[in-house]
Structures are given as C-alpha cells and as structure tokens.
Design goal:
The chain is an alpha/beta fold and 406 residues long. The chain has two domains: 8-217 and 361-402, Rossmann fold, CATH 3.40.50; 245-334, formyl-coa transferase, domain 3 (2-Layer Sandwich), CATH 3.30.1540.10. It is 38% helix and 16% strand. The protein contains 17 helices and 13 strands. It has helices at residues 17-27, 63-68, 82-92, 114-120, 145-151, 176-200, 210-218, 220-228, 262-272, 276-279, 286-291, 293-304, 309-318, 329-334, 336-340, 382-388, 394-402; strands at residues 8-11, 31-36, 50-52, 58-62, 72-76, 97-100, 125-130, 205-209, 245-249, 254-258, 323-325, 344-349, 353-358. The strands form four sheets. A six-stranded parallel beta sheet has the order 5-2-1-6-7-8, with helices on both faces. A three-stranded antiparallel beta sheet has the order 9-10-11, covered by helices on one side. It has a two-stranded antiparallel sheet with strand order 3-4. This is CoA transferase. GO terms for molecular function: transferase activity. InterPro entries: CoA-transferase_III_domain, CoA-Trfase_fam_III, CoA-Trfase_III_dom3_sf, CoA-Trfase_III_dom_1_sf. Keywords: Plasmid, Transferase.
C-alpha cells in the first residue's frame, strides 16, 4: 500500500507548478484526476520536444507534459459550459484535494472557487497556486517563471559580476520558480490534510504565490541582505560566504570544489601539494578565506589547471574533499550513483509505447513510490472516471460527448 492510498486529487492545474505538485501526490499513491480542455488539453502538451514512438516517429506528446503528469488519469471537461462546471462540482464531492493555478478570481466565474466547492464538500483541501497570490495589488496579473526569478531577487544574485565578461543578472536554467512552488504546495497540502484528519474534520484553502515561494526559497542569501542592508554580490560559480566554493579550469574541463570547513581545506591543500596554504594566516578560517578570495583563488586556479578533471576528482574523493565534474545530461544518467539510485526509468504510454522518466527521489522504507501508470494521453480516462467515480451510465456519458461537454 502506498503512503497516500485512498486519497483522491482533482487536478485543475496546467503548465508546471500545479501539475508538478499533483504528480508528486500521484507518486505517493494518490488517485489524481487531471481535468483538461477538450481538444487542446494542458498548454504544455504543446511545449517542449516531441516524444518518439517505438519506431522513432514523432508522437503528439511533448517532453514538458510527460515530465509533470505521470500517474494521473486525464479527463476532458469543458468548464465553460454549465454542464461541465456541474461535472467538476460532482467530482469534487468525491475528492480530498483540489489543485488549481488559474489567475486569482478566474474560477469564481465558473462556480469552481474554494467557496463554491467547499459548499459541496467541506472536507476539501483546496490549493490555489497563482503568480502573485489571491490578494494584493498584483493579484490580478498573469506571470511565468522568468518574471518571478527577476522580481524575487534571484536573478540579481545569479550570474557573473558586472565587471566580468558576460556579466549581469542571469536566469536559472530551468523553471525553478514553478518547481519550488510545487514543492511548497505538496508540503502545505499534506499539512492541511493531516489537520483535517486529526484535528478539525474540515478542509481549508491554501493560497500559494509563485513570487512568495521564490522569495522564501532564496533563504540564507536574502537573510544576508536583511542583516546587513547590503545587496549580495553576483560571483558566478563562487560563493560570497565560503571559499573555495566554485568551479575551476582543469586541463580537459572544469571541476567544482565545495570546501565547507577548515579540516576539508587542509585536506584540499594537501592534495594540491600546497599544504602551506592551510597554515597561512590569511586563509586559516573560512571567513578569512572568503575575505581574501581574490588572493587565494588565483593560486588555487594555477595549480588545478595542471591536471585533468578525473585525476583531481579521484584524489579529492580519496581525501574526502567535496568535489564533482560539471556533467551534461549524458554524464548524469550514465553516472554509477544515479544508475544505482534508479533515477531513470521508463513507463508505458498509450501512443509512444513507453516514455523515459526522471524518478521520484524519495525512498520510503515502508511505502515505496509506486509508478502505476505513465503520463496519460488527452482524455484517456474520461469515460473510466465518469463511470467509476460518478457512477454515470454509458448512455449518459455518450450524451455528454455528444454535447461536447467532455
């Protein structure tokens, strides 16, 4: 039995943040019903690279969609029609959780907001994920990940300094704001679910903003500003508080070194053949190394560029100095640690035959993640869900199809 066996989720969300949260709940065993627009479906069905079938031909499925939607059942419902709205309300009566990421106020127009669904199911945990939250002067605005990376301060601390080649604020290379909000959503949903089941007997509304989530996730770097009043600098791959904590050029590529304490620094210097650096009063402690990085780092760089990445990596590993190569994704999925942890898997798919998946990283001892189904094709489970959950007869389902409600 899975950790969330018996929990049902109505996923009204699209794109990344909501679907990511719903996929996590599906991985943990929840029955997730994904509601999509007839004909078009989730917007990410039209974003990303086309997935190949067994013969190497393109399918209609995209890399973005299959990254966020395994384990779900897809149904198509036209929520612009009153009959479609009624179907969603009836489904909500049989669910524990609703996830939506429409703009603030949008679902109220369809009678599908928290107040409306709570009226038919007071036990619902209803999670609203939006760009700026349900309240405030920006709550009506749309937004996507780059906006929240820029407005949260994340881009101001990412990239090289203005005085460096290619310097300037830089976006993180994936939709970190969406994924971060998705993780916060899962935590909040599970907390609210426990409160319902142990304390109150009733659900509640969760108001989660992508901007708020990204500001919160910046964490200790934001605290540097709050305690000093000074904008943290952009240092590329280096850290403003720890040194050496960055990438270095080697003969055949780059290696990342992350020396977290003075003992590791002594071992690092021993591997470099420069033990005197560890006893130099300018570099004796981490705060001193960070303060004197402009003196220390060039000396380290000169030594590190004399050997290949693999040589340094092996020696650092033997000396328990944290380090690692800068991998491309081929190297990532060929890495023996990633292979051992089974972080790459394939799941069956209705049109592609099977699709690759990055596995859930959580390893439960008693309730392991159960990958029960691959990402669904559009509307794959409409008839199944309407019959199983709502008890509709085949004739009633056929009539809904005829009226283009589903």
């Amino acid at each position: 039995m899975s950790a969330l066996s018996g929990v049902r989720v109505l996923d009204l969300s699209r794109v990344f943040s909501g679907p990511w949260a719903a996929q996590m709940l599906a991985d943990f065993g929840a029955d997730v019903i994904k509601v999509e627009r007839p004909g078009r479906g989730d917007d990410v069905r039209h974003q990303g690279l086309r997935v190949k079938d067994g013969a190497g031909a393109d399918t209609k499925e995209t890399s973005s969609f299959i990254a966020m939607n395994r384990g779900k059942r897809s149904i198509t419902v036209d929520m612009a029609q009153p009959a479609g709205q009624q179907l969603i309300r009836e489904l909500a009566q049989h669910c524990d959780i609703v996830i939506e990421n429409f703009k603030a106020g949008d679902l109220a127009r369809y009678g599908l907001d928290y107040a409306a669904l709570r009226a038919v199911n007071p036990r619902l945990v209803y999670c609203s994920i939006s760009g700026f939250g349900q309240t405030g002067p920006y709550s009506h605005l749309p937004g996507y990940d780059p906006i929240f990376q820029s407005m949260s301060g994340l881009m101001s601390i990412t990239g090289h300094g203005d005085d460096q080649p290619g310097g300037g604020p830089m976006r993180v290379g994936f939709s970190v704001g969406d994924i971060t909000a998705g993780f916060y959503a899962v935590s909040a949903i599970l907390a609210a679910l426990r409160h319902r089941d142990v304390v109150s007997g009733e659900g509640q509304h969760i108001d989660l903003s992508l901007l708020d989530s990204q500001v919160a996730a910046i964490s200790h770097v934001a605290m540097m500003y709050l305690t000093s009043g000074q904008q943290p600098p952009r240092l590329g791959n280096a850290s403003p508080i720890t040194c050496p904590w960055q990438s270095f050029d080697c003969l055949d590529g780059e290696i990342v070194v992350a020396v977290g304490n003075d003992t590791q620094f002594a071992a690092f210097c021993q591997v470099l053949g420069a033990p005197e650096l560890a006893t130099d009063e300018r570099f004796a402690t981490n705060p001193l190394r960070a303060k004197n990085r402009l003196v220390l780092v060039p000396r380290l760089a000169e030594i590190l560029k004399t050997r290949k990445v693999a040589h340094w990596y092996a020696d650092f590993d033997a000396a328990s100095v944290p380090s690692g190569p800068i991998n491309g994704f081929k190297e990532v999925f060929d890495d023996p640690q990633i292979v051992h942890r089974e972080m790459l898997l394939r799941l069956p798919h209705a049109t592609a035959g099977s699709v690759p998946q990055v596995a859930n990283p959580v390893k439960f001892s008693a309730t392991p993640v159960d990958y029960r189904r691959g990402p669904p094709v559009l509307g794959e489970h409409t008839d199944e869900v309407l019959g199983e959950v709502l008890g509709l007869a085949p004739e009633a389902i056929a009539a809904l199809h005829g009226a283009k409600v589903v």
